[in-house]
Amino acid sequence: MAERHYEDLTREELIRLLEARDRRDATRFGLVWEANEIERDKALNSDFVALDLVPELCVGKTPWQNLVIEGDNFDALRALRLAYSGRVRLIYIDPPYNTGQNDFVYNDRFVDKNDLWRHSKWIEFMHQRLVLARDLLTPDGAIFVSIDDNEVHTLGLLMKRIFGETNFVANIIWQKRTSPDARIDLGPAHDYIVVFAQQKDVLSLKKLTHTAKQLKSYKNPDNDPRGPWVSSDYSAQGHRPNQMYTITTPTGVRHKPPAGMCWKNVEEVFLKLVADKRIWFGKDGNGVPRRKTFLSESEGISSWTWWPHGEVGHNQEAKKEIMEILGGSVPDEIFSTPKPVRLIERILQIGSGPEDLILDFFAGSGTTAHAVLKQNAADGGHRRFILVSNTEATEAEPDKNLCRDVCARRVRKAIEGYGETPGLGGDFAYLRARRLARGRLTKLSHEQVWTLLQLIHGETLAPFEEKRWQWAGDAERALLYLPSFRPADAAMLRKKAGESAAVILYSWQSELVRQHLSAEHVQFEHLPEALSRRFGLKG
Description:
- The chain is built from 15 helices and 25 strands.
- With 539 residues, the protein is α/β, with parallel strands linked by helices.
- The protein has 3 domains: 49-209 and 302-435, 3-Layer(aba) Sandwich (Rossmann fold), CATH 3.40.50.150; 212-297, no CATH class; 437-535, no CATH class.
């Protein structure tokens, strides 16, 4: 090791060296990256984030249930945290893979393989966004993250740090190709989907519905009144003394557990299963016992971590889907890691229920929304989606807008139909994230305020209307926003507030309003402090 000449260092250089040593000495096993050495992510800021509704880009009738948000996802996630903290059941993202092949932009520049801080920049970029995403999940929610070999190990350590090691659920292997790449001696056939829970002890993943092929395996050779069934091996690995008994078949044939095995249950349980006709000894009654499972009692099939392309699709299928919907006007970057709709549908099937909220803040071509619409059509669900996508505009292409021209366009076609494919129905509101300096919240427009208030307190979004107040709700609970207040409005306002058992009222003149509308069932919130507080601004 080369000798260090500390006497030649400045005071600032010595402090920096000691701080780096302290960090190294304090390090435990896990992920370490040079967050203090790399240039700061320019997307990071302490501004308030408002959401502007763009009516001409919205789809479907109001009130809208789904959202497409244009803007940097760091900004959008902070606005969503204001409104949706603890409300998102499932997050799926397909972030940049940091391959060094112009797929990851940091501070408006592509990160290539020669960048000495390549991995640290990617980790810092992901860390800032995953911390925000964590706060959006419900206690029983989960996040699924697609990734490839370049950062899969890094991602695993990063997510353990953010979500906790005990909340790791699985690392799914998705077969993305149908055949080997002849150009590579040992070509990659798969990508990964890393899964973490918000709280693993309360996470409950759903079972998959039976496929047509699986249903064919259910038979009823003994005419059991409970209907078709399948049988499974009744032996289990290991040697448990109380499960090593001899079983005698109805015809008198005696069976002991196979070598190195035992029976699945103790004899008392086995005899109860026999009495309930849940044990099958074969058509002749001589066979080794097998356990019957009835289709009528089955909750479905448990998934596992190997997802072959025959079940969930592959890259070429994804490219074909995008081309069929959008034609030849698809930017090359959309095809870098395309995901088929069937893959996201599988994630929705096991990770969400019919009334859940789904978020994708690396929305790309909008595959997640397409999958949500298809899954709702398949099972009659009412899942809602939030997509976040940036414009990806550059100095060379200032008018580029992937969110508007690819993501939102693809979702609109999925809703309305394309070619010979009928529309799936649905809607979305198109929003743009807008930064507002923390000291200028009084400049929030009434439209921006009403948008945020609806997202905070409801599940749908309607446009601002030019009238004395904005109202949303029912006889049980309602939201009331007063852009301005005149004492002359008090009588009509009291009457309106009386239409609901519980009213939360937002006003820029809350104390004045309170003097004219004192009622136990009305909760008063003052603007802009109420929004500032929820956003997390201090001082």
